[in-house]
TrEMBL record:
Coiled coil: none annotated. This is Polysaccharide biosynthesis protein. SUPFAM superfamilies: NAD(P)-binding Rossmann-fold domains. It comes from the Bacteria. Residues 278-560 form the Polysaccharide biosynthesis protein CapD-like domain. PANTHER family: POLYSACCHARIDE BIOSYNTHESIS PROTEIN EPSC-RELATED, UDP-N-ACETYLGLUCOSAMINE 4,6-DEHYDRATASE. The chain crosses the membrane at residues 7-28, 40-61, 73-92. It comes from Piscibacillus salipiscarius.
């Protein structure tokens, strides 16, 4: 029905209801339809006109009544009440008296008939137009605001394939209550029993406040039943309009392994970034691009996107321009950090205030076969960028390092430790504050094991794991990037910042979770152990024994200040590496780290 015909129909129905309410109240009170005829006619005319005016004012003719709720009921109440009050005022002004009882009864009948006419359409639609067959019986975990919102969306959405049949909630006050006709049937300890008793075919976790441990516990119970389990989108994505509340997503391995996000010190970060020129090396990479996204939230004056790969720089450049427009200046720079002259030109041209150095070669086995490239990029490249930063007096320089720099057994880790030594030496003689940030494996990054596992699962398996006891620390890309930015605001010079990454995770457990999250059984895909690869360690560390401090400098952030061996001249050692043969590089860089094992450490809190 078009809006015009719909409006005419509602005007006709409402006019009939108003007249009916007045005459019916007269009959109920006085057993006749005609008392004081002139008063009845004037009251009817006044109430009719007022109703249409106030109905228009409160938008009662523009509402989609098939979705009527409390808000629409309030509009009806206000329109009817104001109409009755104006009618009573007219009665008093014309007849010097008010038919109070008649108006009260008319008011009640008026609300009942108007409300009934509107809400009956919703009942009729739900009963006859939204008949859904072959819907998947769905259990909603969480009967709070989010869960009730999900239930309502599923009930009202005629296109969904899900039918809510039960709630799970640990709040004892909600036990056996109904939300939109769906009953709370148990607690999280009874998930498997409820799924069996109610023949559940789909589970939706709708608890935005649920922490990682709680989500893990619930997911383990759901996955044991082999019922598909999904989770409510992030509340911020729903509020921002990126997704709707009924666009559920699969539980991801990041949801199970990530820690609760660190709370940033917004004030200190704003002071260090707002209206400043920020340069990010490796800006097209997983970590570098996320640093750019995070930095962009703090209103910098300029963001310089420096990288070697033109396609990746183009992508982050376009993303930031689409999201932030002309809010600040975005400058894409194609440059290789190994090209010393080019790096100096960039720094002299743009005069950055803050530098985040994320460019590096990070693949452990690959760097074992290409030690010169690891040294050129991770060591020489870091020296070029740090020298250029010192040359133009950059305020803060943050090196993105790795947990593999601790007691390194591979070329990649050794080169990252030498890179730390480079900036620590520089911090002794420079006005620039040089710091490093160490963290473990980053979930979802290009070198992460997860993309490999996913590909192996898609091909039908098996998933390859090096050793059943292999463990690693894991963090998400946003988490790592926030730590880097926070470290820049906390920098005093020479520190190594480390995130509290919780307990290390067994790689085999990660593989098992990923298989189950993909909807397969472990028996279907299988896990194959291949043995430790060249350069790999069974477990990783974040700080050496002498670096460990029990005091947080910031919530979930620790700091260890290590001064490398005073007998080591880093400039001389780098020159030796430049002049070395390819076959000597690994042994020479390892010997340099061994000489540094007798470091003199001091802890800074």
């Amino acid at each position: 029905m078009t809006y015009r015909y719909r409006l005419l129909a509602l005007l006709f129905v409402d006019s009939f209801i108003v007249i009916t309410a007045i005459f019916l109240s007269s009959y109920l009170l006085y057993d006749t339809f005609f008392i004081r005829q002139e008063a009845l006619i004037l009251s009817s005319f006044t109430l009719l006109i007022c109703h249409h005016i106030f109905a228009m004012f409160y938008g009662l003719y523009q509402k989609a009544w098939e979705y009527a709720s409390i808000g629409e009921l309030k509009g009806i109440f206000n329109a009817v009440t104001l109409s009755i009050l104006v009618t009573g005022f007219i009665q008093y002004f014309v007849f010097e008296g008010i038919l109070l009882r008649a108006l009260v009864v008319t008011w009640m009948l008026h609300i009942l008939l108007i409300g009934g006419s509107r809400f009956s359409w919703r009942v009729f639609r739900d009963q006859y137009f939204n008949v859904k067959r072959d819907l998947r019986r769905t259990l909603i975990i969480g009967a709070g605001d989010a869960g009730s919102m999900v239930a309502r969306q599923l009930i009202n959405n005629k296109d969904t394939e899900l039918k809510p049949v039960a709630f799970i909630d640990d709040d004892p006050n909600k036990a056996k209550l109904q939300v939109y006709g769906v009953r709370v049937v148990g607690t999280s300890d009874e998930i498997e029993k409820v799924i069996d008793n109610f023949r559940i075919e789909h589970v939706i976790i709708a608890i935005p406040s649920l922490d990682k441990k709680g989500l893990n516990d619930i997911f383990e119970k759901c996955v044991n039943t082999k019922v598909k389990t999904q989770i409510l989108p992030k509340i911020e994505d729903i509020i921002s309009g990126k997704v709707s509340v009924n666009q559920f997503r699969d539980v991801q391995v990041e949801d199970l392994l990530g820690r609760e996000p660190i709370e940033l010190d917004i004030e200190s970060i704003s002071e260090s970034i707002t209206n400043q020129t920020v340069l990010v090396t490796g800006a097209g990479g997983s970590i570098g691009s996320e640093i750019c996204r995070q930095v962009s939230k703090f209103d910098p004056a300029k963001v310089i996107l420096l990288g070697h790969g033109e396609n990746s720089i183009y992508q982050i450049d376009m993303e930031l321009r689409q999201k932030h427009g002309t809010q600040f200046e975005i400058i894409p720079v194609i440059a290789d950090i190994q090209d010393r002259d080019r790096i100096y030109d960039v720094f002299e041209n743009y005069q950055p205030d803050v530098v985040y150095h994320a460019a590096a070669h990070k693949h452990v086995p690959l760097m074992e076969f290409n030690p010169r490239e690891a040294i050129k990029n991770n060591v020489f490249g870091t020296k070029n960028v740090s020298d250029a930063a010192d040359h133009v007096s950059v305020g803060t320089f943050v090196l993105v390092s790795s947990d593999k720099a601790v007691n390194p057994t591979n070329v990649m880790g050794a080169t990252k430790r030498v890179a730390e030594m480079v900036i620590q030496a520089k911090s002794k003689v420079s006005s620039t504050k040089f710091v490093a940030v160490r963290f473990g494996n980053v979930l979802g990054s290009r070198g992460s094991v997860i993309p490999l596992f996913k590909k192996q699962i898609q091909l039908g398996g098996p998933v390859t794991v090096t050793d059943p006891e292999m463990t690693r620390y894991f963090m998400t890309i946003p988490e790592a990037s926030r730590l880097v930015i926070q470290a820049g605001s906390l920098a005093r010079g020479g520190e190594i910042f480390v995130l509290d990454m919780g307990e290390p995770v067994k790689i085999v457990e990660l593989a098992e979770n990923l298989i189950r999250l993909s909807g397969f059984n472990l028996e279907d895909i299988g896990i194959k152990y291949t043995g430790i690869r060249p350069g790999e360690k069974m477990y990783e560390e974040l700080l050496g024994e002498d670096e460990v401090t029990n005091k947080e400098i910031f919530p979930k952030i620790y700091i260890g200040k290590a001064t490398f061996n005073k007998n080591i001249n880093i400039e001389t050692e780098i020159k030796k590496l430049v002049e070395s043969e390819e076959k000597e590089l690994k042994s020479k860089v390892m010997r340099l780290i061994k000489r540094d094992e007798k470091n003199i450490y001091s802890i800074s809190n």
